[in-house]
Amino acid sequence: MSTKLPKVPAVIVGMGWAGGIIAAELTKAGVQVVGLERGKERTTNDYLMGHDELRFQHRTELMQDLSKETITHRNNPNMKALPMRSYGTFIVGDGVGGAGSHWNGQTYRFLPYDFEIKTLTDQKYGPNKLGPGYTLQDWGMTYDEIEPYYDTFEKMAGISGETVESYGPRSNPYPTGPMVKAPAFELFEEAAKKLGYSPYMMPSANLSENYTNPDGIARSACQYCGFCENFGCEYGAKADPVVTVIPVAKETGNLDLRTHSNVTEILNDGSKANGVKYVNTITGEEFEQPADVVIVTSYVFNNVRLLLNSNLGTPYNNETGEGSIGKNYCYQVSSATTTMFYENHKFNNYAGAGALGIEIPDYVGDNFDHSDVDFIHGAGIRMTQYGYRPIAVNNVPSGTPSWGAEWKQQSIKYSNSTQQVKSQGASMPHRDNYLDLDPEFKDAYGMPLLRMTYDYTDADKELVKYMAKVTREIAEEIGADHYETTEEQAPFNVNKDTNTHNTGGVIMGADPKTSAVNSYMQMWEAENVFVVGASAFPHNSSFNPTGTLGALSYRAAEGIVKYLEEGGGSLV
Fold it and tell me: What pLDDT sits at residue 165?
């Protein structure tokens, strides 16, 4: 039997970037907030001298326990879905900070083209550019409308970078300058410029210099230790909700943060939420937390799953195209990579940072003509230096045995003698790529798991072929002794593919018939429920999603404060 608790103005489900930003903004406005996080609380002290690759990367200490909750996957609706049992494709965070603690820190804005992609594509190439089956749509807001929120997020996080004019106008430059240019990047830069491209340093949430943000939070510069993705930052140099927005919310005295609290249901009458039900993961006790507003800010998969398990919103039907919960799941397309092997040239590959990189903007969005290709959008072409790790990274030429003396010899030989020119491509939505509840598999609490139906589309495969030529061209201009290029996109494999960017399922838009939330992340079908995160993206750009997620979170927070002040109603 559940214990019913006193009602509060707002309850937040998930205390990562979206939850942390909204908690900070609401509590600064004087709103009493309950923040529910199913994992434990963490601080930078938990990461001191924590450069333990086995513990954090391979045993995934910061991640969700897949033995208790996972997803199931199938490549198409005719297949049986099976549970994901190991982290390959996705690394779903667990604990205060969520994925914002273990991310790499690459912090882009999406393009003006992204927000009006359907309209602009149809205007330039006609309405049938992608052919049938693709469910492309505009976002219900423009770049100019979201730009001030990007600016707010970047100032809060202290994003380090340099202005790129082709990415859209900015109200301010980045608050800190770009990160150091690694020696390999100088080779990339020289080659790219010779080919007529415009290389720039990647925008980074790994601070390039000491910085104090508008909330008075002071953080130190990055040490380039190479332990970002899968790891928390012991220096606080990597922007993380734990060292930025959550302390601000706590300082107000208006945040009641409850850890080990796993929300299993949004309580509702079909058109409005009454609160949430959650389980204490240590004691097993069940609680009901009534609230005026329910704000769902967990990971993409859990946002969708929680709505479906709560019978809130209309589930997407891929056969009819009706409904929006689960619609337009997108990934990213990253197989077009050229690896360069050097016989005598050495780099310091074991130093780096999660957002230390250089790339060109020439092949993103509609920055090049798509008239003669069978895809839209594009890819960032880049070279990065995250920092190699000896267990995870052993680059050897094709044909090398996967174990034994020769493998060891080649691993040592090329440990500091490889570089990659790679792509990260956009993902367009398709009718048959979606999320729903699995009819068979359940989690530790008896709730149905989320089922993903997803595979790369024909457009994705064409994009990879195209971008492989670009990565090869730049790599050959740089020069190496041996090249290997991935030119074809293999079928999606949930246990092996390595991009971590998931979007869609609770998408935003201007039309309630084709979207789940408006531009304030307010549900069309339940006005006091706000679903915030990358689940709102109608497609996935070629850029990492966190900057856009952060901007939408600030926009949502503004709307929630207004909603509470005005006593309800639609915000658009």
Answer: 81
Domain spans in the chain, listed from the N-terminal domain onward: 3-566
Give residue-wise pLDDT tens across range 60-87: 888 888 888 999 999 999 999 999 988 8
Angle between helices 245-252 and 17-28 (to 10 degrees): 30
Instruction: Say how far apart CA 315 and CA 296 lie, in whole Å.
Output: 17
Please state the three-class secondary structure of 349-361 as a single string: CCCECCCCEEEEC
CA distances from residue 525 to 10, 13, 53, 250, 447 in whole angstroms, order as listed = 18, 19, 45, 32, 23
Q: Which of 73, 377, 501, 539 is catalytic?
A: 501
Is 40 or 499 the better-scoring residue by pLDDT?
40
According to the 3-state scheme, what is the secondary structure of 185-229? HHHHHHHHHHCCCCCEECCECECCCCEECCCCCEECCCCCECCCC
Q: Which residue has the tokens 């993705």?
A: 229
Q: Which amino acid is at 524?
A: W
Cβ pair 537, 331 in contact under 8 A: no
Residue 498: pLDDT over 80: no
- Model pTM score: 0.97
- The superfamily (CATH) of domain 3-566 is FAD/NAD(P)-binding domain (3.50.50.60)
Residue 73 annotated among the catalytic residues of the structure: no
Nearest alpha-carbon partner for 290 in 2, 3, 8: 8
